[in-house]
Amino acid sequence: MINKIKTTCAIAVLVLSSFSVSAETAQHGSFNTDGSAQVWNSENSVWITPEQFWQNFTTNRGGLTWQKSRDYPVYSKVNEHDTFLVELDSGVCLMEFFHGRWRRANDVQRWDDKFNSHSGCEKVFE
């Protein structure tokens, strides 16, 4: 009887521990699932604003290549993977120069698709 109880307890522990192992963890660059403008930064294991996320991304790469502006940098002076924050009436969007043109940084880095509708990113190509 005692062996049966031990076996049952062991099975219960295994089943319960499998739930915690299989629990979904946030991936770097994913938005908070409750819809708030918070993004998971796995480097620091913390939820931060999308703007802070962009700042951390560019800082880790040496900082923004071009200052925040309503005007795009002069095409002839731009290099592959240059970054800047484009300012629109609807907000800002981190842009990255990739394969000969400016793209939303999310389109290059492939963070959460919600970045494409955050702040100015939704209307950046209008």
Largest sheet: 3 strands, antiparallel
The helical percent reads: 25-40%
Order of helices and strands: HEEHEEEH
The general outline is globular
Rounded to the nearest angstrom, the distance between the terminal CA atoms is 73 Å
**β-sheet strand percentage:** 15-25%
Spatial ordering of strands, largest sheet: 3-4-5
Q: What structural category arises from helix and sheet content?
A: alpha+beta
Number of E-type strands: 5
Q: Give the overall pLDDT as a whole number.
A: 85
C-alpha Rg (nearest Å): 22 Å
Number of H/I helices:
3
- Unreliable sequence segments: 5-23
Annotation keywords:
126 residues, alpha+beta, two-stranded antiparallel sheet, 3-stranded antiparallel beta sheet
Topology overview:
Elements: H1 2-22, E1 39-41, E2 46-48, H2 50-60, E3 83-88, E4 91-98, E5 101-104, H3 105-109
Antiparallel strand pairs: 1-2, 3-4, 4-5
Please characterize this protein's 3D structure.
The protein contains three helices and five strands, in the order αββαβββα. It has 126 residues and is α+β, with helices and mostly antiparallel strands. A three-stranded antiparallel beta sheet has the order 3-4-5. Strands 1-2 form a two-stranded antiparallel ribbon. Mean pLDDT is 85; it is low at 5-23. The relative contact order is 0.12. 29% of the residues lie in helices and 19% in strands. It has helices at residues 2-22, 50-60, 105-109; strands at residues 39-41, 46-48, 83-88, 91-98, 101-104.
